[in-house]
Sequence to fold (306 residues):
Amino acid sequence: MDLSAAAVELYALAPSEFTAARNAMAKDAKAEGDAELAKGIAKLPKPPVAAWAINMLARHRAPAIDGLVELGEALLQAQHQLDRTALRDLGQKRQRELTAVVREARELAEQQGVNLSQAAADDVESTLRAAMADDDAAAAVRSGQLVRPLESSGFEAVDLTDAVAVPGLPSVARPVRSVKQAEPRKKKDPEEEKKQREAEQRRKAEQERERKAAEADLEEAERSLGEAEADVADASERLAEVSARSKKLAAKVRELKDALEDAEADLGGAERDERSAERAVEVAKRLAARERQAAERARDRLKALG
Fold:
């Protein structure tokens, strides 16, 4: 056995079985003289319930994960194409599919006697959303050996630091070990059994009410998100149009400024020429006045000699 095989086997176990099985594997490897393998096995971390539930989905409900990943790819394509209708429709479908797969995770957990709390269910959904948004996160989910939940901001790559027990293992497409049914309970007092059944029914009814309310809230939030994403697409398209128009106007303003500078330079020259012409006119007027006076004096002398 190598570390990869040990990880595949360990991460198929129920949480209650993990630690004992890991310690036993490490002990056997050490007894067989493989200290390095024993050390590696001993360091394999026990996953929290949410990560374990994702691992169960990878082993027993691989097609459901594949469907979510494909839906995430379709959403990304619609975002790139700024397709408002597709974004709205796919956004609503995303929430329905996520809710259905989280429900499957709850069912798988219950079959092994594990209660998936609302907080753990939220972490399962967060991890599935990350797989929808990031190819590397999808590969980590499909590996079946997550050791912590994942989260996506929607803008940056998902942080996968120390998220997978043994990076590089192929996806787990089929059950490594059949899901163990819960151990049959010992026979109890009928009255006590009745009380427990009633309490369990009340608990399940309350959980179902909370689940339905949460699903309704999530569906409404997802619908609003789809509409918001469509609005973002519209606004982005409008921004592109306005930006292009703004660039054209800025170029036109630069052209007009250059033309204005040239016109101002021409105006300065024309004003200088005008002032020079005005001075020439004044000089010519003064000369004409002197010549007029000289002509009048000559005319007067001529008359006097007459």
In short: The chain is about 75% helix and 0% strand. The longest helix spans residues 190-305. Residues 173-185 have pLDDT under 50 and may be disordered.
